[in-house]
Write a structure and sequence with these properties.
By secondary structure, the chain is α/β, with parallel strands linked by helices. The protein has 8 helices and 10 strands. The longest helix has 21 residues, at about 80-100.
Length: about 250
C-alpha cells in the first residue's frame, strides 16, 4: 500500500490571537509543522501544540522561518547565511524542549513562508537550512520541494530529503508555488483539494496555473491552517486519500 504523510502548518497563533482550529486539524493530519516563535507561536502555544501532537500520535516538525513576527514570516529578509543558520538552530532547539516535555521529539525540519520560497532559488539561504539541520540532528528528514536549491543541497549533504506537495496552492509551470499575491493562488474547495491530493499521490502530475500538466513528487501533502475552510479541506483530503487506498503515516 502506498504511504504518504498529511501535514499542516500549525501553532501559528500568538498570545490571545488564534489563527486556526489547531485541535481539529490535529485530529485529522499525521504530521504537524509547528511554528517555532519567529513568525508565529509563543512558548505556551508551542508547548500545547507539542502535547496535543504527541497525544494524537502526530509527528512534530520544526517549522522554522525568518525572524519576522510582524510579517508572519512572509517577507524576504536578506540575512547573512551564518546568522540565519543560528536563527534556525535557535528555533529548532526551542521546539525540541517542548516536544520532549510532551514525551516526544522533533521528528523533521521544514522552512516556512518567505524562507521556504526564497530557499528554492537562493543558495545562501538554502544552505543555511541544510547547515542548521545537520548541526541539530543530521538524521532528521528535511521537508522541501523537489528540484529546489534546498533539495539539491540537502541531498549533497547526505540529508534525507522528503518531497513535499501542496493541496491548497497553485503551481507555476516551473513546479514552484504561485505567489499568494497573485490571483487564483489558493484552492479553498474541499472536494477539489481531495481530488488534487489523490492525483499528485497516484499519478505524479498536477495541473499548473496555465493549464499545463507538470510532474510532481509527493511524499507529504500540506494543508495550510490559514486557508479558508482548512479543517474541511484537511478532512476531505484525508478521506479521498484513504478511499484511494493510500496509507496515511506520520513523517519521521
Amino acid at each position: 500500500m502506498p504511504q504518504i504523510a498529511l501535514t499542516t502548518d500549525i501553532g501559528e497563533g500568538l498570545g490571545r490571537w488564534e489563527l486556526a482550529d489547531d485541535d481539529a486539524l490535529l485530529d485529522i493530519v499525521t504530521s504537524a509543522n509547528i511554528a517555532c516563535g519567529f513568525h508565529g507561536g509563543d512558548p505556551g502555544i508551542m508547548r500545547r501544540t507539542c502535547q496535543t501532537s504527541v497525544d494524537n500520535n502526530v509527528s512534530i516538525g520544526a517549522q522554522v522561518s525568518y525572524r519576522d513576527l510582524h510579517g508572519f514570516g512572509r517577507r524576504y529578509i536578506a540575512v547573512p547565511q551564518q546568522e540565519l543558520t543560528d536563527d534556525l538552530l535557535y528555533q529548532m532547539g526551542a521546539l525540541e524542549a517542548f516536544a520532549r516535555l510532551a514525551g516526544g521529539q522533533v521528528d523533521y525540519i521544514r522552512a516556512h513562508g518567505a524562507l521556504y520560497n526564497a530557499s528554492a532559488k537562493v543558495t545562501e539561504h538554502a544552505q543555511a537550512i541544510v547547515d542548521a539541520t545537520r548541526a541539530f540532528n543530521p538524521e532528521l528528514p528535511l521537508l522541501c520541494q523537489v528540484g529546489t536549491e534546498t533539495w539539491r543541497l540537502g541531498q549533497d549533504a547526505g540529508l534525507r530529503t522528503v518531497a513535499e506537495a501542496f493541496v491548497d496552492r497553485a503551481y507555476t509551470t516551473e513546479g514552484l508555488l504561485v505567489p499568494r499575491t497573485e490571483p487564483n493562488a489558493m484552492y479553498a474547495d474541499p472536494e477539489e483539494a481531495g481530488r488534487r491530493a489523490v492525483q499528485m499521490a497516484t499519478t505524479g502530475k498536477i495541473e499548473a496555473i496555465d493549464g499545463s500538466s507538470i510532474q510532481i513528487q509527493a511524499e507529504a501533502l500540506l494543508v495550510h491552517c490559514d486557508t479558508t475552510g482548512a479543517v474541511e479541506i484537511a478532512r476531505s483530503t484525508r478521506s479521498a486519500l484513504v478511499e484511494a487506498g493510500i496509507e496515511l503515516v506520520p513523517l519521521r
